[in-house]
Amino acid sequence: MQLYIDTANLAEIRRAAEMGVLDGVTTNPSLMARENADFHDHIREICRIVPGPVSAEVVATESDAMLAEAEDLVRLAPNVVIKLPCTVDGIRACRALSDRGVRVNMTLCFQPLQALLAAKAGAFLISPFIGRLDDVGEDGMQLIQQIRQIYDNYGLETKILAASIRHPQHLVQAALIGADVATVPFGVIAQMMKHPLTDLGLERFLADWAKARPRSAATAAT
Ligand code: E4P
Description:
Bound molecules: erythose-4-phosphate
Helix content: 55-70%
Largest sheet: 8 strands, parallel, barrel
Radius of gyration: 21 Å
CATH class of the largest domain: Alpha Beta
Order of helices and strands: EHEHHEHEHEHEHHEHEHH
Strand order of the largest sheet: 1-2-3-4-5-6-7-8
Mean pLDDT: 96
CATH topology of the largest domain: TIM Barrel
Low-confidence stretches: none
Distance between the termini: 53 Å
CATH superfamily of the largest domain: Aldolase class I
């Protein structure tokens, strides 16, 4: 499973990249707005830090205007992926961009038929939002499962990017189902290597080692 970070914060992106396990980045207009930076400069900088796919989202809602925005975004860096909403205009723009070899991430996916059309329109990624479905009493993980089955039934190559992940269990479930990628907030990435028994075990190993060291040193001296 590939791991993307879901943020536009440069410090978080750098810290995750330093772990050596980061495959890409997703941003969205809400995340960008928090950074209070020039959009294009900021995307350029993210693309410098992470060589993998970096999703940059258009804010136009009509397909011709989406294509015009995408035109500027793809010029920023070769690893920019254009993020478009799962709407009829989004699908039309996806088809046009995919036909030109531009990679598209279809976002705001909340039902499996949106994912089917995104794949038919040549999307590189489909982003089903798990957490936001859970928030309204639906089952976000079931959507991942349905899309996985539909894509596998027909050999569709669009990658399933599990999005709107709120906690490590979302990530475990998405990985078990076979999502190709997960995009995860920094806080959840930090939790991925955490277990209290790891901390306790390490503490005990180090304490035992510290007790045994004087003895080993004495044995070596005789
Ligand atoms: C995905 O690309 C989105 O940016 C993101 O996962 C949305 O997550 P949220 O529902 O926690 O805002």
